[in-house]
Design a protein that fits this description.
Chain lengths: ~160, ~230
Amino acid sequence: MQKIIGAIAIALLVCACSSIDCPIQNTVYTTYKIYNKADTVDTLRDTLTVYSKRVEGTDSVFINNDIKVTNFSLPISYMADADTLVFEFKNVNSIILKDTVTVSKTNTPHFESVDCSPSYFHNLTGVKYTKNKIDSIVIKNTTVSYDASKEHFHIYIKSDN
Amino acid sequence: MTHLKNISTYISKAIISILLLLLCTTVSAQYQYRKKTVVVEKDTIPFFRGIAISTDLVGPLMLSASDYGQYECALKVNLKDKYFPTVELGYGKANHNDGTNINYKTQAPYFRIGCDFNILKNKHAPNRMFVGLRYAYTSYKYDVSKADFKDPAWGWNVNYNISNVSCSYHWIEAVIGVDSKIVGPLHLGWTVRYKHRIACNEGDYGNSWYVPGFGISSNTRLGGTFNVIIDI
């Protein structure tokens, strides 16, 4: 009897310690995968910088001089109906071409626990873009959540040739 | 020679007779002993032994000292001091507002239904130790809110409010506990409970946090009660 009571007391003490159950992957990003015209994965040959205008008028740089990558991730706003991003491509001859990409979406608040940061999940509804360097952008997965493994956009970039 | 043979035969017969007599006596004694044991173990306690009501003191204490807790009472039927069919009704509440400044509110009733089994050898002793099982269910709504904050990338104000999210939770509990007679109809007792979620609907916005009667939402949870029990 005493042994049982002792075991129960130890179990209660151990379980009295609280734990925080926030997911390890707790950022909500969109993922862009680079493809060529043959619809195979391509590598970024130009240097890419992506930025957007903050509410106070300054630039918020999300990617700075990225090159030789096959994919990249960009943040998505919590509550705006559409995010406007500037893609700046600089080739080996230092010629800069800019494209403006506008991603439309719906926003749903997401709750994990009181111990975790608040977040929003999104449903992508459309994408518009200029075509100076970008050939096309196709939405592949409309749901944007903590799942970083999903490819949300396939981006096709024009070659210099 | 013939005379000697006769004597030897008589002795052999006498020994065999004595052995047989002893064997019969032993068997008869064992049989009588068994008969006596059966008579002693016969249980004349009636099937229905009464009803007890109880209330938990841990839940209100949690409610006064932390962000969540519950009020709970139970009705227990005593069948032969061995089986105790039980119904537990409660009302769970949570109002959390600290840490990341996320405010979580919920309040809802819950119920459990199950049976305890007295595992002591002497079932009719004033003290009992029991194990039991429960099925539990609650249907609740929660609200989550947070003061406006800045979107880190764009700098816009973000409003974070989720209201009236409908949820339901089914779980089972394995119970172990004791119950001691203090004076007259008054008993005190405690239980330790292993809770295991079997099904849930936590709405369209992710997870709920506190579940009335279950505690913090997860697959499994340990809990306990300290009960004041009155025999009716």
